[in-house]
Amino acid sequence: MKTAVYYPRMKTNFFCIVFTLFAVLALKTSILSAQIGVRTPSTNTTTSTTLTISIPIGLAVNDVMIVNIMQSNNDGNQLSDATGSDWTEIAGTQIYDYSWGQWRATLLYKIADFDDVAASNFTFTLDSDADDGEGGIVAYYGVDVTGGVDHDGNPGGPFDVNPGNSYGGTGSNSTTVNAPSITTVTANSALSMFVGLQNDRTFNDDSWSTTNPGSLTELYDVPFDATRDMGIGAAWAIKSAAGATGGGTATLNSSTRSGSILIALKEYSSSPDPCDYDDNSINIGASNFIPCIHIPTYQQTVTNDLDAGEYFTLNVISGIEYEIYTCETSAPSDPLMITVYEEGEPTEPNIAFSSSNTGNPCTSTNNNVYVAFTPTFSGQVRVLINQEGDCGASSPTGLTVGVNVPGGSNDLDSKINTLTWHKSCRRSRKIGIIGGC
Q1: Looking at the chain, which terminus has fewer C-beta neighbours within 10 angstroms, N or C?
Q2: What is the pTM of this model?
Q3: Domain 5-29+271-431 carries which CATH code?
Q4: pLDDT value at position 200?
Q5: Neighbouring C-beta atoms of residue 8, cutoff 10 Å
């Protein structure tokens, strides 16, 4: 995944050995910068409250599994969502509610671990009033399992965008199923459409589509002639560019009620190489910035006019955590990355690097960047901001850059003005028990 990483200071020769070993291992890792793909889906039906589905063929550790489950009854009692051990619910919706029957769809996900790969099947529990049920598991590989958002939209999950918590398009009796549009935020996400049907209908060939990326490839189509008939289906495609998908649609051989949802998974890619100490030119106006420390948060603007390919210097204190980030409400024209070095130490390794925006306290807008680090020295750091993967590029331009000091402590270095590499907030206080700036 792409994260903000703190590297402790090391001697150059040791760092070179570690970096070389990492590079060799990276070349042998098949999913680095690889497009998302799918394993062979697995489906099954049941006439009880237990649904057992075989693991998808070829399942591997860190695959993202999504199961789409339908259940029904014939007594009109309300149905609760299906569950599975260590599976997390994405969405659950009553597809149709009538006095003589209920139909409910549930979407769950799980990141495959070693136990999952060694298993032969997965077991799911339906509502105690369910008479019948069915489900289909799709496993995706090449997903950034922690670099996106989770099922609630919080940082640290496999989804490219918050998946929402319900199936849409329910209520109407039609030969067309409709899923509400979503807006992806990164390129090459895996867009999938999952459908639950109130009757045992089949999907017409090549009928799955969205506005963007267009046609979707069918993953499974499972009509089930049960006490209360039902059906499920799914399709997918790679969405090469970020942006709105438009509504998802598919057509059926005969009309029924349905519920549909679009889900986007974030592609895994290896982190780009950091820029070298001397790659950038100095931004004089932003340099020698002295952040005011006001734990737990005090966001400050370093500059409103920094171009990719420039650097500035920042005064830091040992043991204090610093966050540096771009703060553009409109997405920069290109994705960015930040590299941090100790100023005056061109042969030392960088102390922090990031091409991710996860954690940015200013904005979650695409193409911004964020890094956090805690220096082991007091002095200055050199902060390089570059276009991701291109240390020679001079765009985007006019970037707003911020700094925040969210935590840390230092009881050894006084904040008296005789020290020139920090700003005194309250001269009689020590770092870590600071009042207000």
Answers
A1: C
A2: 0.62
A3: 2.60.120.380
A4: 97
A5: 8
